[in-house]
Backbone:
């Protein structure tokens, strides 16, 4: 036995669903927030249009190696001909440098000195002496990839391997 409102109820629900989809689309377009780039078909999602285009990396900049000046100073990871860790892009060094930077910012000299000793012993073992800086390099990743440009270099500290 068929429901007495079966066909009428089905038509009504279908008609209401169509109006709902149409109303939702009209509202999504009409109520676009100021400055929004993406809005169609049903939402406003600006994930990448709002993200920062800058990145900051803590790294080492070498100024002298075994008594020979490095002019102009070069980043550790650009010295693949000298350091094995630079050739291998060892991620342990990146993590150590971040922790060292944090310890210096927190004025935790004991931790900073321990981390520095590990960096020098483990990742600079190929050289007997080195003068270097711990730096924060700020750059636009796309621009750096294309041109090598770094916007700002902040020197956090200058150090000599094996010296206090």
Residues:
């Amino acid at each position: 036995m068929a429901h007495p409102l079966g066909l009428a109820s089905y038509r009504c629900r279908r008609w209401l669903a169509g109006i709902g989809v149409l109303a939702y689309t009209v509202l999504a377009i009409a109520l676009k927030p100021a400055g929004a780039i993406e809005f169609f078909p049903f939402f406003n999602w600006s994930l990448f249009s709002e993200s920062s285009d800058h990145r900051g990396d803590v790294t080492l900049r070498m100024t002298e190696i075994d008594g020979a000046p490095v002019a102009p100073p070069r980043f550790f990871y650009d010295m693949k001909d000298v350091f094995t860790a630079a050739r291998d892009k060892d991620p342990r060094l990146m993590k150590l440098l971040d922790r060292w930077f944090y310890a210096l910012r927190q004025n935790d000299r004991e931790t900073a000195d321990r981390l520095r000793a590990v960096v020098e012993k483990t990742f600079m073992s190929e050289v007997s002496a080195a003068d270097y800086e711990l730096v924060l390099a700020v750059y636009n990743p796309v621009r750096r990839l294309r041109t090598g440009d770094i916007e700002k270099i902040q020197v956090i500290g200058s150090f000599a391997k094996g010296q206090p």
